[in-house]
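Comment thread on ticket #2218

A.B. wrote:
> Attaching the input chain for the structure job we discussed in standup.
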Amino acid sequence: MAAKVGTGARKRGDTGMRNDSGEKRDVARVKMIAPEAAQGETRRVYDRVLKQWGKISNFSRILGHQPAALEGWALPNDAIRLANVKADPEYVKIQQLVIIKTSALNGSAYCTSHNVPLGKKLGFTDEQVRAAQGSAYMDSPLFDARQKAALRWAEAVTNMTARDDDAAFAAMKEHFTEKQIVELTVFCGMWNYSNRLCEALHIDLEQPEQRIDFQEK
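C.D. wrote:
> Ran it. Output below, let me know if you need it in another format.
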């Protein structure tokens, strides 16, 4: 006998599924730990994340099962991105380009849903976001040479071609310090990880008002 196909089939980018009664339910494959239910180390790390972003995202609610993993995510975000929002905003814009490009290459609706708005808050236009996500960014007049170098590097790292792409690395050396090259490569690796985790575990998309945001420090 053929199995019954339910109404809750999940498509990439869904914010949730509805059961046969039309009630919305989470689509995540593992239970998300709500802030009010967090205890011990998870509660401690949630408090750190709240200071960073003002909200506990669904991504954090999944990583809350292993607070060491969540804190491992929070630490480089603090040191590389959030510490530079005011100190070096142009560098943070480049970080956002790396995140947006990586997430586009991997087709991660979840990470895109958070990081495109963050990029726009930093000053990117819709046209720039589309160009960064596309394949013709190197020919685009919307990016300077430094931004193009970072986008090219993100693409090479994500596609696992960076090892032999000496030209892409030479462009990085021209525009960034060695510390920044490491940081941008770390961010590319982090979002390759988060893209895969979000897709594998079906992490629910939040509504716009529930997404993370830069906090005034």
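A.B. wrote:
> Thanks. Noting for the ticket: The chain has two domains: 34-84, 88-205.
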